[in-house]
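In the laboratory, one determines a bound structure by crystallizing the protein with its ligand and collecting diffraction data. In a computational setting the workflow is compressed into a single prediction: the sequence and the ligand go in, and a structural description comes out. We illustrate the idea with zinc ion.
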Amino acid sequence: MSIPCPRCQQALTPGAPSCAHCGASLLIEVDGAEPACAIHPTLRSLGTCDRCGAFACAMCLRVDSRGQVLCQNCHEREPDVLLPWDRREELGTFMAFWKTFVEVLLRPGSFSTVRAEGSVGSSLLFALLSSLPSSFVTGVTYLGLFSFMTQVFPVASTQPEVEQRFQWVGLATFAFCVLVIPPLTLVFTLLNAGVDHLFLRMGGITRDFAVTLRANALSQAPMVLGGVPIIGAQVAPFWVLVARVFAYRGLHRTTWGVAAVGALAAPLTFCMLCGGGYIALILLAVGRS
Ligand SMILES: [Zn+2]
Ligand SMILES: [Zn+2]
Ligand SMILES: [Zn+2]
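The predicted complex, in structure-token form:
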């Protein structure tokens, strides 16, 4: 959203006293019925604050990181904290990821002051990095399992071609986990965020899909714990869902209720469909016998 210059109609720079395009002074004296600035009663208002509705002159107008037009007061109050992930150039990608991971796990409440916008690319990169440790550990586990089986079963040692086959299956599973699962994670992230966004929209949120995608990706940080053998895989998905409720609430600045529906409606529906499918299969099997 932009505010036009009253003379040349080009977008003016909020806060600047004159137009950058035509040079006209934007500090115009009020004459007659025109609305005046709430702070400067002698100056003409050029726009209203999207937050509080106050009339604002050129000096008092601001635009925030989301492109909202705000008055100076509301702009100062607007929390717009950068996550470590947003400071990748300064911290380095690995450090930025690690610090954001800790933040999401231990202080999910800070989502409510964090900048809502982030590029689609940066969100997807975060989701990708979150998935790598668990895919790697899963791959290594299968690789180990298949080599172990060739040691345990005596038939393998007497038939070298069987042993070799086991090793190939192990390697193929490892390659699948490391090369195929991460890209699939990205596709799933986009689909999941898309469905969640529809539910959030029904709850009345106004911010873009990129905000939902960012919240969805950042809340995948606990999946790193999926790389911790045995306990990780059980705990991580639930931790993700809890973090996601915080993330949707914080980045969309919405209520707990709307955020919870956005985060949980899709997975619950999915579980119910799967559960329903299993029950139908069981009934079918019972009916046949
Ligand atoms: Zn102008
Ligand atoms: Zn305001
Ligand atoms: Zn003013």
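The first strand starts at residue 47 and ends at 48. Keep in mind that any predicted model is a hypothesis to be tested, not a measurement.
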